[in-house]
């Protein structure tokens, strides 16, 4: 289900939600499937929503994007005019200088198990590179700098037996498969990748990555392990924390610095500094994942000063992902707002909470009381009406 909240003139002007009519959903409810090409796997389009080149795309890493009409009433399967032949990540990156949409897709039925793609600012798929990896691993996100792409080949491995048994996420923790990162020039291809081994861990989400001479700095939300609790059980028993990976291409090693011990997820930055050195990051704060896996609040990190500020939404309230929106005339990196959907259990409905990023601890600048509960989901975007 996709949700849209409209803001104009300092007011909330509308709210709507719609199921994304994928082929999988159409088969379940016996209705007409969406237009467009067949997907290798019919994905649920439930992970992220972006707008690029004037088209709103609902994304999931197991399938093709679904292009949505402005009113959300229609969806069609989108493969960039036949250029896409395998699934697309739900975490593409937009280069703020060129407007290119840079992304990858992994394919459990490869080889190739991994492909790298570039869509230009006009929406045309202009590059595809096959990447050699030995097996199908779950690659949820990656790092993109102004000159490089960083692939995360980590030990969450596709298990055909789990897929045959009907598990919706047929992957398992297999540390003996090893862990490594692959750094590729964005203008290069498979033969240009430098693979560097590291200790096993897992990353669902990358805050940002940037070049630092002969190294790449990448801030990630790191798990000690994941998918280690057995099929059908919790995804992980390991608390995720913010860490900095320094990928040294001269010494051929990856070093790690833990930036905080607070369990967090869903990291976001100001997209205007994507691929560039960043000072600030925003995350949702978790309880102890083994006992209380809900989001309790939000955290703003000042990585230059090594400080953090918390926003507490209040008792019986649980926030979602924090999305940063730069002020129209904003010059400082944190000059803008942070938007988060907050579930209020006292009225069984949700609010859109808007924070001033420069005074992140609150109180909120504005709160939009929505007429219904927005089910907990994953990721979203701020989309200016003129984009």
What does this entry look like structurally?
The chain has 387 residues and is mostly beta strands. It folds into three domains: 93 residues, no CATH class; 127 residues, no CATH class; 119 residues, Beta Barrel (Lipocalin). Helices cover 3% and strands 43% of the residues. It has two helices and 29 strands.
Keywords, please?
single chain, 387 residues, mainly beta, Lipocalin, 3 domains, five-stranded antiparallel sheet, four-stranded antiparallel sheet, 2 helices, 29 strands
What topology emerges from the helices and strands here?
Elements (H helix, E strand, L loop, with lengths): L1 E7 L2 E8 L4 H7 L18 E5 L2 E5 L6 E3 L6 E3 L15 E2 L6 E6 L7 E6 L5 E7 L11 E2 L3 E6 L2 E3 L1 H5 L6 E3 L5 E7 L8 E5 L3 E11 L2 E9 L17 E8 L4 E6 L5 E5 L11 E7 L8 E8 L4 E5 L5 E3 L3 E4 L9 E9 L4 E8 L9 E4 L18
Antiparallel strand pairs: 1-2, 3-4, 4-5, 5-6, 7-8, 8-9, 9-10, 11-12, 12-15, 13-14, 15-16, 17-18, 18-19, 19-20, 21-22, 22-23, 23-24, 25-27, 26-27, 27-28, 28-29
Beta-strand segment tally: 29
Q: Tell me about the biggest sheet?
A: 5 strands, antiparallel
Radius of gyration: 20 Å
Q: How far is it from the N-terminal to the C-terminal residue, by CA?
A: 22 Å
On the 0 to 100 scale, the average pLDDT is: 94
Q: Helix coverage percent of residues?
A: under 10%
Instruction: Supply the number of structural domains.
Output: 3
| Number of contiguous helices | 2
- Based on Cα principal axes, name the global outline: globular
Low-confidence sequence ranges: none
Strand content: 35-45%
- Which structural class fits the helix and strand makeup? mainly beta
């Amino acid at each position: 289900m996709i949700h849209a909240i409209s803001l104009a003139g300092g007011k909330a002007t509308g709210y709507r939600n719609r199921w994304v009519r994928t082929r999988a959903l159409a088969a379940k409810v016996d209705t007409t499937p969406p237009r467009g090409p067949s997907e290798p796997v019919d994905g649920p389009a439930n992970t992220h929503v972006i707008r690029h080149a004037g088209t709103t795309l609902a994304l999931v890493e197991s399938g093709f994007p679904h292009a949505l009409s402005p009113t959300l009433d229609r969806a069609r399967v989108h493969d960039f005019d036949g250029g896409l032949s395998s699934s697309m990540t739900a975490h593409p990156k937009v280069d703020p200088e060129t407007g290119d949409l840079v992304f990858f897709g992994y394919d459990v039925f490869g080889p190739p198990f991994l492909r790298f793609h570039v869509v230009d600012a006009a929406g045309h798929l202009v590059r595809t590179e096959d990447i050699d990896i030995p097996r199908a691993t779950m690659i949820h996100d990656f790092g993109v700098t102004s000159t490089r792409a960083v692939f995360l080949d980590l030990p969450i491995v596709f298990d055909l037996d789990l897929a045959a048994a009907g598990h919706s996420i047929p992957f398992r923790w297999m540390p003996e498969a090893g862990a490594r990162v692959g750094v590729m020039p964005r203008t290069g291809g498979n033969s240009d990748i430098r693979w560097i081994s590291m200790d096993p861990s897992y990353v669902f989400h990358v805050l940002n990555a940037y070049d630092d001479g002969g190294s790449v700095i990448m801030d990630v939300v790191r798990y000690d392990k994941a998918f280690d609790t057995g099929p059908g059980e919790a995804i992980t028993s390991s608390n995720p924390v913010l860490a900095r990976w320094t990928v040294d291409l001269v010494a051929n090693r990856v070093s790690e610095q833990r930036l905080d011990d607070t369990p967090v997820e869903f990291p976001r930055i100001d997209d205007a500094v994507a691929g560039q050195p960043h000072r600030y990051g925003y995350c949702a704060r978790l309880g102890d994942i083994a006992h209380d896996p809900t989001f309790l609040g939000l955290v703003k990190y000042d990585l230059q000063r090594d400080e953090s500020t918390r926003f507490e939404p209040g008792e019986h309230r649980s926030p979602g992902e924090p999305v940063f929106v730069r002020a129209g005339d904003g010059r400082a990196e944190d000059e803008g707002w942070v938007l988060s959907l907050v579930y209020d259990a006292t009225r069984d409905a949700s609010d859109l909470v808007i924070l001033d990023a420069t005074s992140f601890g609150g109180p909120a600048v504005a709160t939009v009381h929505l007429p219904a509960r927005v089910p907990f989901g994953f990721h979203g975007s701020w989309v200016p009406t003129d984009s």
